[in-house]
Amino acid sequence: MSSTTPLIQLRNISKAFGGREILRGATLDIQRNEITAIIGKSGGGKSVLVKHIIGLITADSGEIIFDGIPYSNMKRKDFSAIKNRCSYMFQNNALFDSMTVFENIALPLREKFKLGKKDLEDKVRARIEQLELTEVAQMYPKQISGGMQKRVALARALVTEPEIIFFDEPTTGLDPIRKKTVFSMIHRYHEKLNFTAVIITHDIPDIFYIAHTVNILDEGRIIFSGSPVALEQSSDPGLYTYTHGHEMLIDELTGLHNRLSLMRKIEAFGAEVQGSEQLVLATVRLLGMRTMMDYKGDLLAHAFIRNLAKFVNSFLPEGACAGMFSKEILVIAAKTKDESTLELFLSQLEAFFTNLTIETYCHKHRLQVEIGGALVTTGLSAYSAIQEALATSKKYV
Ligand SMILES: Nc1ncnc2c1ncn2[C@@H]1O[C@H](COP(=O)(O)OP(=O)(O)OP(=O)(O)O)[C@@H](O)[C@H]1O
Fold first, then answer.
1. What is the structure's pLDDT at 380?
2. Per-state percent for the chain, helix, strand, coil, to nearest 5
3. Which amino acid residue places its CA nearest to atom 24 of ligand 1?
4. What is the CATH T-level fold of the domain 8-246, as seen in this structure?
5. Is 22 in the pocket of ligand 1 (CB under 6 A)?
6. pTM to 2 decimals?
7. Domain locations along the chain
8. Residues 389, 375: contact at Cβ < 8 Å?
9. Which end of the chain, N or C, is more open, meaning fewer C-beta atoms within 10 Å of its C-beta?
10. CA 296 to ligand 1 center in whole angstroms
């Protein structure tokens, strides 16, 4: 098969249970070596769709084509070969309580390959080390935290070096920080090992940061398939709840607006400004934040942003808003008649970053901070307005 042919094609898949139609002609492609996300309402049939691919459910009608071969033409042994190329990470981790972490991770190797004791142990140990589970290798799943159990499940999904991994809600039951950590783990391993990933999730917008393609399953059909950027830019009212739904407007982790809702809010402020009102924008550029995320892990960076967000929220006047324009840029915006608003924003931000603890932290993690602010000319797009404020940036730390 050419490398541009999708690895898996689902064509018009329909499935009903007891007369209740769950899938109504769902069609989607899963591209090789990409991360494909499937999102949709709870109970909408996302798991059912994926179970068709791995042969746990047979469609009432429609076809699945794997590496160019339709399932309907496949012999049993061809299908077993496909199954050996796949691995799964289930919603509840599906770890065996009676087995140690080591044994749980070793299980797929024992089931799929006939390895000698040493080879098997080497492979399991390598994954255990990579996922920082060495200290808990001889413990049982119940003795370790939920976040660690997810890491064990991920280690088990990766141990056979599969070509395709299905993740069914890999972040369920985790707090916002650990959710982000699981997604960054998947992202990191995907970059290293280059498998094809299919992720079922409710975690919008987090999934948008790692998925190449997002598919929306709605009323049994795929109503959108495309890049996260295309989804965010779409003006299709049918996609409204997925791109502008309440849960997306405020970032769960920080209480700040995400990029999309921040831009909308600034544009709304710009359009509403009248009389003696002005649009005020302050920006904080955190140079080095991206590197810090890459080298020290997201957890540390998120904790810092959360701290900053808490402080910003404590002095925001009513009606003002704050959000992350990017991983390194925080923006505060307000529509106000009060001429001292910009001064207030700047002095508060300066106070935060000149605090000794914060300053020491920034030095330690090589973060450089620039603060900017402007009374923005009305009629500018949100993007240009932010650039105007950024252009006034001065280095603080
Ligand atoms: N084997 C089955 N027999 C009967 N009904 C089933 C079966 N499998 C799934 N269903 C039903 O199909 C519907 C879709 O279930 P599915 O688990 O795919 O939803 P989902 O989109 O993954 O939801 P969630 O996001 O809440 O996990 C549910 O109403 C479920 O009860």
1. 79
2. 45, 25, 30
3. 42
4. Rossmann fold (3.40.50)
5. yes
6. 0.65
7. 8-246, 259-395
8. no
9. N
10. 39
In angstroms, the CA 225 to CA 329 distance is 29
Phi and psi at 118, nearest 5°, equal -70, -45
Three-state SS across 108-171? Answer: HHHHHCCCCHHHHHHHHHHHHHHCCCHHHCCCCHHHCCHHHHHHHHHHHHHCCCCCEEEEECCC
Complete edge-to-edge strand list for the sheet that includes strand 35-40: 86-89, 164-168, 196-200, 35-40, 213-218, 221-226
Binned average pLDDT, 10 residues per bin, the chain of 397 residues = 82 95 96 95 89 92 94 87 87 84 94 86 90 91 86 90 92 77 86 92 84 94 92 77 56 76 88 87 92 70 85 91 90 92 95 91 91 86 91 87
- Distance between CA 352 and CA 346 in Å, rounded? 10
Amino acid at 183: F
The response to whether residue 275 sits with its C-beta less than 6 Å from ligand 1 reads no
| 385 contacts 358 by C-beta, under 8 angstroms | no
Residues 6+ apart with CB under 8 A from 388: 281, 374, 376, 377, 380
330 C-alpha vs ligand 1 centroid, how far in Å? 40
The Cβ of residue 145 has, within 10 Å, a number of other Cβ atoms equal to 10
Q: How far apart are the first and last CA of the chain?
A: 54
Q: Using a 6 Å cutoff on CB, does residue 48 contact ligand 1?
A: yes
Task: Give dist(CA 166, CA 198) in Å, integer.
Answer: 5
pLDDT for residue 196: 96
The residue nearest atom 26 of ligand 1, judged by CA position, is 42
